[in-house]
Design brief:
The chain has a domain of about 140 residues: Heat Shock Protein 90 (2-Layer Sandwich). The protein is about 55% helix and about 20% strand. It contains 14 helices and 17 strands. It has a five-stranded mixed β-sheet with strand order 2-1-5-4-3. Strands 8-7-6-10-9 form a five-stranded antiparallel β-sheet. A five-stranded mixed β-sheet has the order 12-14-15-17-16. The longest helix is centred in the first third of the chain and has 73 residues.
Length: about 575
């Protein structure tokens, strides 16, 4: 049965783990993956466009920087005069070139690291060719002095594998064309930027110049490569220059790295999930094992009294085990108390059996003695024996029921008569009770112990006189019983402490050496029968002595219950 419960517990824990932990985690992970995949795709596309725009901007800046050489040469007035034929003799042309213009060309070629050469093709045939810098227009090949050339333009020379810039040089007045400036730049101006762009976005980058696809490779542009159309490819063009940068598929190496990183991440996540699941099941299995062992121990306690159970854990189950051990200890104490009470009851029954005397034998004997006292004319002895006989009859008839106030006062009266015969003139007593209270019911021996204590503690010395007053009355629907003597007064602190203990129903043994038993008994019995209305209070009368007052409401439910108990 216990093993079945354990298997059911493990099965339930497994279902709870799958439904409430594993499945939500997988669903959340899938949703997180797809949502973030779309987000990162958009972010990646945005970053790619930004990188392409930045690459085109950098290329444009480098092209503009190289094209600025034209402004420097165009503003060189002596060189413009040279192109216009101001230096007609050959010696003057050579002198002017080597004195001024050669340094100008060296400076222009070093203006940008991408400039390979700067050439000027003159329109005048009478000018000498100066190295590779100044040549005749016939060496330029196809050219045209159109608006495009006048404004300046870039093109890609597939034969030279150079980026070429051409623009018309004009006279100082600007109305005569003197030649064409040609700036030859290395293709690394574009290829380096394209290679850097390819590395930053992880895609293959295609450079298209004049409709020809050129792949950047080792700092050079390779013409004639096949243009590969890629889905979702991004492109960016330079304004005023037929150069287009287009992105293709992801670089295989980078894709492999990304795939490997994603695979490793997934494997690590799965490993952590499996490890956490194993730890979870290990914890659940260990907890269920502890519960099963504890259940077996509880089952064994049904047939025999077990000892304390030990549990190695420090969690909620250990708290349950601790409380179970406390319960076992308490049950053991209760069992020992029950056994002790049974032994005491058996011994008391034996003692009662030993001390049992037929009450009628005592009544008959006392009655015989009383008759002999009357025959010998001893009325005092006869009355004392009569009172004693009534006291004994009343005592032997003690039960848990209620008696009338008249019977209780008759008992007190007989008791005081016996005490009067013993003390003589040292005792004076008075009992006052309205007739309408005679029929009220109360527990037995409620007033007699108070009267006995009043006589016992009301005498200051052996010859002192004791005045005892017992008064019954009604006060606000409550029965009021006062027992008052004229003995020594009780200290106010002691009296206040006793009243506090009486109001709480606590033991008075701490304040009295055996004298508080009567008060404890009366207080406990009356508080049990009249829990809502009974009160007992000690006070000091004006003339000295001690007054004990009892108050309770007659006719409550406790009375009927007690009366029914006495009937049984």
């Amino acid at each position: 049965m216990i093993e079945t419960i354990r298997s059911h517990l493990l099965h339930k824990m497994l279902c709870l783990f799958l439904i409430f932990l594993l499945l939500p985690c997988l669903l959340f992970a899938a949703a997180f993956f797809f949502v973030n995949q779309a987000y990162f795709s958009r972010e990646r596309a945005s970053l790619e466009m930004s990188a392409m725009s930045r690459c085109c901007f950098n290329i444009q800046q480098d092209l503009d920087s190289c094209a600025n050489v034209y402004k420097q040469i165009q503003q060189h007035s002596n060189f413009l005069r040279f192109l216009n034929g101001s230096y007609q003799s050959v010696p003057r042309q050579l002198e002017a070139y080597f004195r001024e213009f050669s340094s100008m060309f060296h400076y222009a070629e070093s203006y940008s690291p991408y400039i390979e050469s700067v050439n000027v093709y003159t329109l005048r045939e009478d000018l000498l060719n100066m190295n590779d810098n100044v040549k005749g227009i016939s060496q330029l090949g196809d050219y045209s002095l159109d608006i495009r050339t006048a404004a300046g333009f870039w093109r890609y020379d597939s034969e030279k594998q150079m980026l070429v810039y051409r623009q018309t040089l004009n006279s100082i007045s600007g109305d005569v064309s003197l030649g064409i400036l040609e700036i030859n730049c290395s293709p690394s101006l574009v290829s380096l930027q394209a290679t850097e762009l390819s590395g930053s976005i992880g895609r293959v980058v295609y450079v298209i110049i004049d409709g020809v696809c050129c792949l950047p490779e080792d700092g050079a542009l390779l013409p004639g490569a096949e243009l590969v159309t890629v889905k979702d490819s991004q492109s960016e063009s330079l304004d005023g220059f037929s150069l287009t940068i287009q992105t293709g598929g992801y670089v295989p190496q980078e894709t492999s790295k990304s795939f490997n990183l994603l695979t490793i991440t997934i494997l690590v996540g799965l490993l952590l999930l499996i490890l956490s699941s194993c730890m979870f099941f290990f914890s659940i299995s260990r907890l269920s094992g502890r519960i099963v062992r504890f259940s077996r121990y509880i089952s064994s306690s049904f047939t025999e009294i077990p000892g304390a159970y030990t549990d190695p854990g420090h969690d909620e189950l250990s708290l349950v085990v601790h409380n179970f051990n406390l319960m076992l200890e308490r049950n053991s104490d209760l069992i020992n108390q029950i056994k002790l009470e049974q032994l005491r009851q058996n011994e008391m029954a034996y003692q009662v059996l030993q001390a049992q005397i037929d009450p009628h034998f005592l009544y008959n004997t006392l009655e015989s003695v009383r008759m002999m006292a009357e025959m010998k004319d001893e009325p005092e002895i006869s009355d004392m024996i009569f009172s004693l006989s009534k006291l004994m009859r009343y005592s032997f008839s003690v039960n848990t029921g209620l008696v009338t106030m008249e019977d209780e006062l008759d008992l007190v009266s007989q008791f005081l008569k016996v005490q009067k015969m013993r003390l003589g003139e040292q005792l004076r007593f008075n009992i006052s009770c309205p007739k309408e209270l005679y029929s009220c019911r109360c527990p037995q021996f409620i007033i007699q112990p108070l009267a006995e204590n009043a006589i016992k503690y009301g005498r200051d010395g052996s010859n002192s006189e004791v005045c005892l007053s017992i008064t019954l009355s009604t006060e606000g629907g409550l029965i009021l019983v006062t027992v008052e003597n004229n003995g020594a007064a009780m200290g106010s602190r002691r009296m206040e402490r006793i009243n506090q203990l009486l109001s709480r129903g606590e033991d008075l043994s701490e304040l009295s050496s055996g004298t508080g038993v009567g008060l404890d008994s009366i207080n406990n019995r009356m508080r049990y029968l009249y829990p809502d209305s009974f009160s007992m209070e000690l006070s000091a009368p004006e003339g000295g002595g001690l007054r004990v007052s009892l108050r309770w409401r007659p006719g409550t439910e406790g009375d009927s219950n007690e009366a029914s108990g006495s009937g049984r």
